[in-house]
Amino acid sequence: MQLRLNALWGRCKANRSAFTLVILLTLALGILLGTIISGGVRGQEKRSSDAAPLSVPSPRQLSNQFTQVAKSLEPAVVNINTESTLKPTARRRGQSPGDDQDNPFGDFFDRFFGNPDNAGPIRERSLGSGVIVDSKGYIVTNRHVVEKADRIRVRLQDDPPGVQHDAKVIGTDQETDLAVIKVEVDHALPVAKFGNSEGMQVGDWVLAVGSPFGLQATVTAGIVSAKGRNIVPNRAFQSFIQTDAAINPGNSGGPLVNLEGDVIGINTAILTDTNAYAGVGFALPSNTVVQVYNQLTGPEHRVQRGSIGIEFNAEENPAISRVYGVQSGITVSSVVAGSPADRAGLKVGDTIIAVEGKPIKNGDELVSEIANRKPGSKVNIDYVRGGRKEQTAVTVADRAKLFASRLGEDEEGGGESAPRQSRLGITVRPLTPEVADRLNTPSGKGVVVQDVKPGSFADDVGLTRGDVILEINKQPVNSEDDFDRIQSGLKSGQDVVFLVRQRGVGRNTGTIFLAGTLP
Predict the structure, then answer these.
(1) Cα(350)–Cα(338) distance, integer angstroms
(2) Which terminal Cβ of the chain has fewer Cβ within 10 Å, N or C?
């Protein structure tokens, strides 16, 4: 037995190399077979999916036209900040120390200079937008953005934070709620190009650009929802483009533009119950804006519109035509006494059917035909009276003067006028003997400051209500005429020095200088 085991062990030792080789070959074959089988399974898994790979398109393929319009227009859109002084409210009894009731001159100035409520002014600030239309600094905006503002400041797109430019009003138009203002800069400004609003159709894409809630350079997109919207009763010159591009407080005065980058409207109003965007906004058409702008920047800085002095129903009613026996035209409902229409013989019930031979189909056409004619020119009116066609020549009048009371104006610009405010920002009154005695000032010397416009040059140098101006640049100021003559000769960039006896300063305490450089 032992001999057999020894023999077997000897044979194993003799064939150990071969045995080792067999084992290694077996392991290698197992690994190879496993790899082939695993690869086959994975291949089957891959072949079982038919999903196509996704890819990201170039950004230039997405809304690139909006981007280009926004980039080209934004530099011409400005932010407008205004400051206004509201009518003061009456002060209550028990005020804290420091107000006018502690000033021995308070009652005196209230009685003489018109502050019966003994209250200080209330300052109000508001925001709006505008669009630069001339590289010299002319800007179109809404009248309601700048009206009654004591100070108007404009921030340009490229200005650093905090930099603003004072602007002056060139002209305003109540009928269209448009205004033109101007900033003085030492370089040419980027401008927006106006398009033809008549070319816009309902459904066309538009962008609104402005400063809603003070957020400068905000762009919103929408479409033209409707045209020819009349949202203000009895306003013949406010026919709006309606849009669903978001318009909010602060957007007023900013442009509505088409996808060519042309301004086709000035954003003016929104229809909402919350004072914020509700999907309905209105822009004044660019064709109207251009007409108004050209007149506001003209020699008279106001818009002249023709009128013959008649009124008619804004809404067409077929019953009127049937009763008065006409097929088309505008039936007169009122004739202003002494107006051109009255002098030409037109009467209530007459139906105007043509102007200079051009047929009139509705009220907008009649208003357009007459309003665009120069006051003083003559126009032939065809009308129907009692079923018979007649004609008369009418001399066109200035609509603002003809309807002065309705427009809140008068023919010459007002009744008893308030004291004129100078370019210095103050109004003055003569120093009467009684006022001079109360102020401890020699009689016949100086003028007293009645009012100081906030933010003006006079306000900046420290003049206040009740100060007595004795001299300006060493020239005695002893009357309103002296003051007007001296201040009218002052120029921008010139140093101005006031010799002033301040309110409440006694006769023997001397005077002070207040000075600055006129902007």
Answers:
(1) 17
(2) N
Domain hosting residue 431, numbered range? 426-517
User: Are residue 472 and residue 493 in the same domain, yes or no?
Assistant: yes
- Using alpha carbons, select from 335, 147, 111, 331 the residue that is nearest to residue 252: 147
Catalytic residue from among 84, 129, 225, 252: 252
Greater confidence, 240 or 64?
240
Query: pLDDT (tens digit, 9 = 90+) per residue, 209-223?
Result: 999 988 988 999 999
Distant-in-sequence, close-in-space partners of 33: CB < 8 Å, separation ≥ 6: none
Asked whether residue 150 is domain-assigned, the answer is: no
Average pLDDT, the chain: 81
- Examine the residue annotation and report whether 177 is marked as an active-site residue of this protein: yes
Backbone φ and ψ for 500, nearest 5 degrees, come out as: -130, 140
* Catalytic residue, candidates 173, 177, 262, 482: 177
Catalytic site residue from 84, 129, 144, 211: 144
**AA identity, residue 298:** G
| Residue 144 annotated to the active site | yes
Helix 16-47 with 2-14: angle, nearest 10 deg: 60
Residue type, 108: F
- Tell whether 51 is covered by a domain: no
CATH number at residue 238: 2.40.10.10
Cα–Cα distance for residue pair 489/477, rounded to 1 Å: 14
Phi, psi (rounded to 5 degrees) for 48: -80, -15
Q: What is the DSSP letter of 95?
A: P
Of 265, 517, 235, 203, the closest CA to residue 364 belongs to 235
Per-residue model confidence as pLDDT tens digits over 258-315? 999 999 999 999 988 787 888 999 999 999 999 999 999 998 898 989 999 998 876 6
Same domain, 274 and 210: yes
Number of structural domains (the chain) is: 3
Residue 386: give its domain's CATH number. 2.30.42.10
Q: Say whether pLDDT at 96 is over 60.
A: no
